[in-house]
Design a protein that fits this description.
The structure holds two protein chains of two kinds. By secondary structure, chain A is an alpha/beta fold. Chain A contains 20 helices and 20 strands. Chain A is globular. Chain B is an all-alpha fold. The chains are: A alpha/beta, B mainly alpha.
């Protein structure tokens, strides 16, 4: 947060955005007013589909070809909305720049970083390619890319997501812009990387004094970086004001709901007398890579010597960044990939069993995936998807019985059983995840491995899904292995937590011990980066 | 890179060996021989001829003899054009076919590529529809129909272009055969380019290029087209093969002394060495072209670079 003047640099007035689709016109943005003053950071908050990204796409002239925008986008006393591309290009990429949500695909895979950084400098700054390249190197240093002399010659595929986002930021700063629009720039990144990128942005803003428009659905970020906030819902700004004001005295019910959306509450502990359901000893999973053209063959130890035991009704939260081996562990426990070590489920050793002998056990051990869009077959009705498992595990059931069980399962996840004849594409992300949960629950399993079940969902939906999972656990005495990078969710659902880094357990303990008194630096870093601050924020100051 | 190219070239040897073997025995299965005329030759003459060309020896022996001479790049004497060796025939005709094929390929790339980009930038508008309709026409109308029509209009009625002959590769003589040969390829390249260009224009990195106010040329050519051209490059291998074999019809219609006609004449006359020679030469070109395509692909896309 920096000092600011009251003169708007960029003002959006009465902006509407409509999309022509086959079934008619969809209005994504319905006449909104947003402005940003010099040196100010403004956040636009809302859930997916609220029109926050399309607002900025319209302002930048980047709408899809079926999109129409009207209203005014005033920059330097001139309406830039609807300008011909040649005139618009004098502003965009030069005075107003943008970074995007998808760091993995926003850079051209076919050109070096240096070349891509140089392009806007050559086009807008009138620099020669050589001078532009020298400036590009400076920019890479500015955004703290390690070994800039080497990285300037790399291609995007040779860099991590965080580094690519740094390159995008460097590109955005190239021509000394007045306004930087950041569209969910950290959503696709790990929590620790996210924290670094946010720090970098805040630091650069302080040094360079531009205005920032930050689009996000994450209130933790908003509270940390924004001076003012606009809350958007279904194409309208429902509330706006100073950040502190919004967080302490939200006026609109939707804002209150967003603020209250962090998964809250705690799981009740399980008595020590509960029987041990699952025991894993010295789990180890290795992937070997054949020698390629360049790389010599090597072995990656994705899971390295991990042991744990789970009592009936307990939830073990496994947290860590991407690549820490947490998903691999989940799969290895279910005997879905070859692993060394011993897994005992209900007193029976299951490690080393072949597929056929695993099949009768599978009913009791189920898996729920992260991606609610990819994990449901688009060619089956919801009823078929849910009852499919019964065909294998309870072949004696009649079609009528299966249907009844499917209805029951849908009711359990608070979906209308009448929906069972529809197809997955007719449902929202949250509803699909409920369907995936119903598909699991219909088999009445004892152990469920949940692999990032809430990561693809909006915060408010996340909260509902977490509550649903807790209720189901209580009702059926389920045992969960809950894999997530989201510490807020884990805090709300787990009894014990295991922190993983590079295949090893860094720290393990009860939820309270991990969150209140973390021992290892890595855990502290994760907790710090996760911006777990909303609990205090929502209480009136 | 040299190692990669060398490896690929060495890898082509077994492929060629298989092609030579299979086609050697296939043509021998076909009934009749090179000296079976309508009025049979005298038995004594026949015997002598067979002896000279080793046709009286066991098939295996003939096969080994042929392998030996091919390994020395000697395709043997022609049975039909009796004053020439196959090497002599090819020395005259191959450059003509190569010129014809390459010109058609370049024309197809330039015209087809331009049409594809043009259509993609005007997606679902009249210009797009007309380009794609023309492309469909280009694929469906066979070149033995296109050739006579073009000849009739431009050659006979208007008298602008000669109706046939090669004339040492003079420009006016080349136009009609090249255009006719290229038309179907123009259509395919246009369709391929349009499809991948539409996808490229919607990709995130092209959005970035637009957001950074880069010039139209940079957005369309530098960022969108380079990625979009990759499927077209992959298609060049099969396209080269199609142009070489497609030239059989074109060369016959326009009376061009390329290697295409040897396909037909060789096969009809059971001129074993001629057929074999044509097969080997065409196979070599297809293999070579696929290598060029892979190198070109690596040049365009750093993610698949070999080293």
């Amino acid at each position: 947060m920096t000092k600011r003047s009251e003169q708007p640099v960029l003002a959006i007035r009465n902006l509407t955005v409509d999309f022509e689709i086959a079934s008619g016109t969809v209005s994504a943005v319905k006449g909104i007013d947003i402005h940003v003053n010099a040196g100010e950071t403004v956040a636009i908050v809302g859930e997916s589909g609220s029109g926050k990204s399309q607002t900025m796409m319209a302002a930048m002239g980047l709408l899809a070809s079926n999109g129409r925008a009207s209203g005014e986008v005033v920059y330097e006393d001139r309406n830039i909305l609807g300008l011909p591309v040649s005139k618009l290009n004098a502003v965009r990429g030069r005075k107003i720049t943008m970074i995007f949500q998808e760091p993995m695909t926003s850079l051209d895979p076919l050109y070096t970083i240096g070349r891509q950084l140089a392009e806007p400098l050559v086009v807008h700054g009138g620099l020669s390619w050589k001078a532009a390249r020298a400036k590009a190197l400076e920019l890479l240093k500015l955004v703290n890319i390690p070994e800039p002399e080497r990285k300037i010659k790399s291609y995007p595929y040779e860099m991590s997501g965080g580094q690519r986002q740094r390159v995008m930021i460097a590109m955005a700063l190239a021509n000394d812009p007045d306004v930087l629009i950041a569209d969910e720039p950290t959503t696709a990144l790990d929590v620790t990387t996210q924290a670094q990128i946010l720090d970098l942005l805040a630091d650069l803003q302080k040094r360079l004094g531009m205005s920032v428009i930050f689009i996000t659905h994450d209130l933790g970020i908003v509270r940390r970086i924004a001076d003012r906030v606009y809350v958007m819902k279904t194409g309208e700004v429902v509330e706006s004001g100073e950040t502190a004001e919004i967080f302490t005295r939200p006026a609109h019910p939707y804002t209150k709901m967003l603020l209250d959306a962090e998964p809250a509450g705690h799981k009740l502990p399980v008595p020590d007398s509960a029987p041990v359901l699952l025991e894993a000893q010295k789990m180890r999973v290795e992937f070997s890579f054949e020698a390629g053209f360049l790389a010599p063959g090597h072995i990656l130890r994705a899971v390295d010597d991990i042991s744990f035991s789970l009592r009936k009704g307990q939830t073990l939260g496994v947290v860590g960044e991407s690549g820490s081996g947490k998903s691999t562990l989940g799969r290895a426990v279910l005997n879905l990939l070859p692993a060394q070590g011993r897994v005992v489920f209900k007193g029976q050793q299951i490690s080393g069993l072949d597929r056929a002998s695993m099949r009768p056990l599978r009913k009791n051990m189920q898996l729920i995936f992260q991606d609610p869009f990819g994990s449901l077959s688009p060619r089956m009705t919801v009823g078929q998807i849910i009852s499919e498992g019964l065909l294998v595990h309870e072949p004696a059931l009649t079609a009528r019985d299966r249907d009844a069980r499917a209805c029951q399962a849908l009711e359990e996840v608070s979906l209308d059983p009448a929906m069972r004849n529809r197809y997955p594409h007719e449902f929202s992300g949250g509803q699909r995840q409920r369907i995936a949960i119903a598909r699991t629950m219909v088999l009445k399993p004892e152990l469920v491995v949940l692999d990032e079940p809430t990561s693809a969902l909006d915060r408010t939906i996340q909260k509902q899904v977490v509550e649903l999972l807790r209720d189901l656990q209580e009702a059926h005495g389920l045992t969960y292995l809950f894999i997530s990078h989201d510490l807020a969710v884990v805090r709300a659902i787990a009894d014990t937590v295991m922190v993983m880094q590079r295949g090893k357990v860094v720290e393990a303990g009860t939820v309270d011990a991990i969150f209140e008194a973390p021992k290892s630096d890595y855990t502290r870093e994760l907790i710090g980066a996760a911006l777990l601050t909303q609990r205090q924020v929502t209480e009136p100051a | 890179m040299h190692r990669y190219v060398l490896g690929r070239l060495l890898g082509a040897i077994p492929t060629l060996f298989l092609i030579v073997t299979i086609s050697f025995f296939l043509i021998r299965i076909a009934p009749g021989g090179p000296f079976d005329l309508e009025r049979p030759l005298e038995a004594k003459v026949m015997e002598n001829l067979n002896k000279i060309y080793h046709l009286n020896e066991p098939l295996w022996n003939q096969y080994l003899l042929y392998l030996k001479s091919v390994a020395r790049l000697d395709f043997g004497p022609s049975f039909y054009f009796r004053d020439f060796t196959i090497n002599e025939l090819f020395a005259q005709s191959l450059p003509i076919s190569i010129q014809l094929g390459l010109s058609a390929l370049c024309l197809a790339l330039v015209v087809g590529g331009t049409m594809g980009v043009f259509a993609a930038l005007r997606q679902n508008r009249p210009a797009d529809y007309s380009v794609m309709a023309a492309a469909t026409l280009g694929v469906t109308v066979p070149n033995f129909v296109v050739a006579p029509i073009l000849t009739l209009i431009l050659g006979v009625w208007l008298g602008w272009l000669p109706v046939g002959g090669w004339n040492g590769g003079a420009f006016v003589n080349v136009i009609l055969p090249v255009v006719t040969l290229a038309l179907p390829q123009v259509a395919v390249v246009a369709r391929l380019t349009r499809g991948s260009m539409i996808e490229a224009m919607r990709s995130n990195h092209v959005r970035t290029a637009r957001a950074y106010g880069l010039t139209g040329f940079m957005v369309i050519v530098v960022h969108a087209l380079r990625g979009a051209i990759l499927p077209v490059v992959s298609y060049l291998g099969p396209a080269a093969a199609a142009l070489l074999t497609g030239s059989v019809v074109i060369e016959t219609i326009f009376g061009i002394p390329g290697i295409g006609r040897y396909f037909v004449q060789g096969a009809l006359n059971r001129d074993y060495t001629l057929v074999m020679g044509t097969v080997v030469v065409v196979a070599c070109f297809v293999i070579l072209f696929n290598l060029v395509v892979d190198l070109l692909y690596a040049l365009l896309d750093p993610r698949v670079r070999y080293d």
